Amino acid sequence: MKETPIPLHLIKFGGSLITDKSTYATPRPSVIRNLLRQLSTVTPLPPLLLFHGAGSFGHTLAAQGLPQHARQIQSDLQHLSQLIVDAGQPLPLPLHAVHPHQHATQLHSPQWWQSLLDSPTLPLLHGDVVDGTILSTEPLLHLALTHLPRPARILLLTQTAGILDPHGQTIPDGHTVPDTVFHQSPTPDVSGAMSGKHHHALTLCQQFRAQVTIASGTPPHLLRDWLAGRFVQGTHYFPPIPETKS
């Protein structure tokens, strides 16, 4: 009998979670430390790729237009990645930053993605400016799943407990989210804010049959619980169960 491969796990630290999007290039060190601390307690880690959003290290300047800010955005995002890598140093969690603009010709290579997955250290990728164009984190997730075809679980961590209804309550089933719940972001966002996350989650679920969860990254144990396969509060996108042939 053919063994079912261990699912690929893709985790994104949202930019609005790990930075203060109202102030240019301002990280939230305590949030970053909490997330990395949870990761460091899970042994062994499953097949995992880690991603982070740009937050105030990218959206503020990107909203003012490219290409005049492209190099500064790249530099700022490298700085944010290094802050995260450095925060993992005191923990048994070796990270290494992967900057997509430095690997533009490899982003469509299955061998390159597999090499990241096989790395002895945990790869940390991020949204970036690649060849003068914004490449947000969600399209990077799409590339990863395209070139690493296997069952997948995806966790998109934000400031809120998933997608909220008009009363502030979490909508648990992502397939029932109405577009009327989305509003314009009060801070610069060139990737579609929560509406963009929702539509990307639907695409990843439907196209790759991935299990996707949008959840808050602020609880002290949510990330660890998700990695352990426990149910967590959030908005969930589950692929339909394939019909069995009689």
Q: What would CATH call the class?
A: Alpha Beta
State the total count of DSSP E strands.
Answer: 9
Distance between the termini: 20 Å
Helix content: 25-40%
Query: How much β-strand is present in the residues?
Result: 15-25%
> How are helices and strands ordered from N to C?
EHHEHHEHEEEHEHEHE
- Largest sheet, described in full? 7 strands, mixed
H/I helix tally? 8
Molecular shape? globular
CATH topology: Carbamate kinase
Q: Which radius of gyration do the C-alpha atoms yield? A: 17 Å
CATH architecture: 3-Layer(aba) Sandwich
- Total individual domains: 1
Question: Strands, helices and their partners?
Answer:
Blueprint: E1 8-13, H1 15-18, H2 29-40, E2 48-52, H3 59-62, H4 70-87, E3 95-97, H5 110-117, E4 122-126, E5 128-130, E6 133-135, H6 137-147, E7 152-158, H7 193-208, E8 211-216, H8 222-227, E9 235-237
Parallel strand pairs: 1-2, 1-7, 2-4, 3-4, 7-8
Antiparallel strand pairs: 5-6, 8-9
Helix pairs in contact: 6-7
